[in-house]
Automatic annotation (TrEMBL):
GO terms for molecular function: oxidoreductase activity, acting on the CH-OH group of donors, NAD or NADP as acceptor. This is NADPH-dependent pterin aldehyde reductase. The lineage of its organism: Eukaryota, Viridiplantae, Streptophyta, Embryophyta, Tracheophyta. Belongs to the short-chain dehydrogenases/reductases (SDR) family. PANTHER family: NADPH-DEPENDENT PTERIN ALDEHYDE REDUCTASE, PTHR45267.
Length: 244
């Protein structure tokens, strides 16, 4: 009998959005440590450089060989930018096996009539349209390859509600609905799930909970469990709403 360790297998190429901080950064480092190739998108060039400095070094190779990891400054709210990045991924033969739509933002605690229009738009443009941009340009690549798993990061507030975070709740409920609908459109071999990470001590949580966010686990302690969970997703999970 062959024993297969969970989360252990052939190296995969994993695309993660929002790798400059929080869950995305911790997950990228954990997966890279396990030998997987990371494609990472983030808006902050400074934080990208910090991440690159911490990613495990590539195996010794000629200077003409491409780097194992590809970390790029990008704004997922820009459809044009994501289209160009998808083209780059194809040209460098890095079509991902797994995509984690992690990038997200939240409004400052406020009643809906006191949330400025610009702030509401930022939440929607990042949390919903950003995911749609990734799906628009990367799903066809997975479909052509006839395999792939997409993880849309949701939230407990995509399955429940709380006062003063209505824009964020609306965006995560949208992710749940988007995921279930897209799941019905996918051909065999490709799957999409909505994944709630649980309650983690991130900057996003601190904006809501204040100092009490420190009572919850850190992204670094969350990442090993999350990485194993994500690596073990299969097409049988298509359309599911899951929690790490």
């Amino acid at each position: 009998m062959t024993v297969v360790l969970k989360g252990v297998g052939a190296p995969k190429t994993v695309l993660i959005t929002g790798v400059s901080r929080g869950l995305g950064r911790a997950l990228a480092l954990e997966l890279a440590k396990r030998g997987h190739a990371i494609i990472g998108f983030a808006r902050s060039q400074e934080k990208i450089q910090g991440l690159l400095a911490e990613l495990p070094s590539d195996d010794p190779a000629p200077s003409s060989s491409p780097s194992k990891h590809l970390i790029i400054q990008a704004d997922i709210r820009s459809d044009t930018s994501i289209k160009e990045l998808a083209r780059l991924v194809v040209e460098t033969r890095r079509v991902p096996d797994i995509i984690v739509n992690n990038a997200g933002t939240i409004n400052k605690n406020n009643k809906i009539w006191e949330v400025p229009a610009e702030e509401f738009d930022t939440v929607i443009d990042t949390n919903i349209k950003g995911v749609a941009n990734i799906l628009r340009h990367f799903l066809p690549l997975m479909i052509e390859k006839k395999q792939g798993i997409i993880v849309n990061m949701s939230s407990g507030w995509g399955r429940s509600a709380a006062a003063e975070v209505a824009p964020y709740c609306a965006s995560k409920w949208a992710i749940e609905g988007l995921t279930r609908s897209v799941a019905k459109e996918l051909p065999p071999g490709v799957a999409v799930v909505a994944l709630s990470p649980g309650v983690i001590n991130t900057e996003l949580l601190a904006s809501c909970f204040g100092s009490s966010s420190a009572l919850y686990q850190t992204p670094e302690s969350w990442a090993p469990k999350a990485a194993t969970f994500i690596l073990n997703l299969t097409v049988e999970d298509n359309g599911a709403s899951l929690t790490v």
